[in-house]
Amino acid sequence: MSDFNPEKLFVIYTGDVTATTPVIPRKYTLTHSDVTGELFLTIGIQYAWENINEMRDEVLGEWRHKSGNTFYYCVHLYIDQGEYDINAATKRNEIFVRELPLALTAIRYGDRALFNKHPHLNQSFIIVNFISAYPQFARQENWGTFDVY
After folding, report:
1. Of the candidates 64, 72, 94, 76, which has an alpha carbon nearest to the alpha carbon of residue 130?
2. Of the candidates 147, 148, 143, which has an alpha carbon nearest to the alpha carbon of residue 61?
3. Contacts of residue 8, Cβ cutoff 8 Å, sequence gap at least 6
4. Which of 14, 22, 66, 70 would give a disulfide with 44, using CB separation of 3.0 to 4.6 Å?
């Protein structure tokens, strides 16, 4: 896994989203440059589909309300929908698993003003959905809470 470098993270808020409001709806689109190592985090009420390229190696996330003051963070990772053979899908899965801690750290850091205003979000579970046509890669996992990232 790469080390997180805050100087290589660029954050943009879109629509009516600010650094601290709203919690819901609040969607995150994290993309990157393989050449520069820069990370680009767009936070808005919709995903930044215009920032997603044909490689589909983005990390999408959103806050969801469970009950009361309890939230969870839902991540969507696109492995494939049958366009890759099993070897390519295996490699994509491995890369997502390896790099997801860095992505979650970048999201937590990039939206730190929200976490400072709503510290209970640090204890929210992170539920990761791996989207794949291959049953061995299509799964949902609990990746802990933001207070470890």
Report:
1. 76
2. 143
3. 36, 37, 38, 39
4. 14
Tokens read off for 3 = 């080390």
Task: Say how many C-beta atoms besides its own lie within 10 A of residue 75's C-beta.
Answer: 23
pLDDT (tens digit, 9 = 90+) per residue, 87-146? 999 999 999 999 999 999 999 999 999 999 999 999 999 999 999 999 999 999 999 999
pTM, two decimals, is: 0.95
Helix (H, G, I), strand (E, B) or coil at 147: helix
Helix (H) or strand (E) holding 95: helix 86-110
CA 134/CA 14 separation, integer angstroms: 34
